[in-house]
Design brief:
The protein has no helices and 16 strands. The chain is mainly beta.
Length: about 240
């Protein structure tokens, strides 16, 4: 037999308390660093048909923060994420886990060393009600030669709209190139790019915003690359 977690995520507004759960009949103890023992005093009838059977071992509830994540440079879909707080207190065994959201099966994930995680983030799929479009702004994307150098500017707009009937939190990311050569200079144009955070080591910019119901917002993103004239760069 193997232990496999079923993680059911529900909207807090739709959740109803259970009068009794399987957790009332289970005692959990750690036997070693690689095993968790479940002592169950609730009788089960296991069919002798040779087929694999699923048994509920424990039901637990935990608070979760919901937000959307998008990186439109790679994928224009918005992904709904659930960040479970204090997941180290849930006694989740390492292994595969099946995820359902509001009663709909979403797929399988893998939990690795959950007891060491203060926060466990689960992906709950895409939501087409959050629309995102990333476009290059041709009027501001230029290429000019200054003496022995070429300076090229790249400018983009990211348009986001919340078509849901309630406010949502969104983490939006984009990226500019990082130079490893002294004769190539990359600069984020801060007058047109105002993210929440800018990681200069990875070139990742992040906007953490709250979109009201029906709200549309546009984010601008631009950077310049200066390099020796005649150098062939794949930009």
């Amino acid at each position: 037999a193997k232990a496999e977690a079923d993680i059911a995520v529900e909207d807090v507004a739709d959740a109803t308390p259970m009068e009794m759960s399987i957790d009332d009949h289970v005692i959990v103890s750690d036997n070693s660093a690689v095993a968790t023992i479940y002592a169950i005093d609730l009788p089960y009838t296991i069919p002798g048909n040779g087929k694999e059977q699923n048994i509920d071992l424990r039901t637990q509830e935990a608070a979760a923060d919901y937000y959307y994540y998008a990186a439109p440079k790679l994928d224009t879909d918005a992904y709904l994420l659930a960040e479970i707080k204090e997941s180290d207190k849930l006694d989740l065994p390492s292994g595969s886990a099946q995820i359902t959201y509001d009663g709909v099966y979403l797929g399988e994930t893998y939990i690795d060393n959950a007891e060491a995680l203060k926060k466990l983030t689960l992906t709950l799929g895409t939501d087409k009600r959050i629309t995102i479009r990333r476009e290059k702004v041709k009027d501001f994307s230029t290429k000019k030669v200054f003496g022995s150098d070429t300076r090229q500017v790249f400018a983009y707009t990211i348009s986001v709209k919340n078509n849901r009937k309630r406010d949502v939190r969104l983490t939006l990311k984009d990226q500019y190139p990082i130079s490893t050569q002294k004769n190539i200079e990359v600069e984020l144009l801060k007058d047109t790019t105002t993210p929440t955070t800018n990681n200069t080591e990875t070139g990742v910019v992040t906007w953490n915003v709250t979109l009201k119901a029906g709200e549309a917002r546009t984010f601008t993103f631009s950077y310049s690359v200066k390099y020796p004239k005649g150098m062939d760069l794949n930009l």
